Amino acid sequence: VAFVVCRSLEGLKTFSYLEELILDNNLLGNDLLLPRLPHLHTLTLNKNQISFQRNTCEILLDHLAEVVPSLQYLSLLGNMACPNELVCKEKDEDDYQRYRYFVLHKLKNLKFLDTRKVTRREREEALVRGAFMKVVKPKDAKVGA
User: Fold this and answer.
1) Please, what are the domains in the chain?
2) Which GO terms are recorded in the biological process aspect for this UniProt protein (predicted)?
3) CA–CA dist 25, 23 (Å, integer)
């Protein structure tokens, strides 16, 4: 298990057999780049600066799928990308469930997401509709005079 407080993760490449990595309470954002960690099964990124801006979270999830193929547990609580009442009072359980479908669509091997076990029904729904569950922030509507 590694507990890291940092803004750069460059040194992790020397720990290729790492299985658990806790990166909570850092200033990590959507530009997070991990080295290939084929044995990593647990990653927590709670309370960082990860959001769903301009498809960058989708890029981050694609990156994780590539560099941590054994990932089974991921937690993103406390980030804007994880839409729940802890981050934004306007979010509800439906917003959170859509987020789960989208993440599970991208990271098919997850067994736990945040604090909840992935159910068979969620996995099936993620396969069918997960790609369409991307949480997006609507652009400001400009009103013409």
Assistant:
1) 2-132 (3.80.10)
2) melanocyte differentiation
3) 7
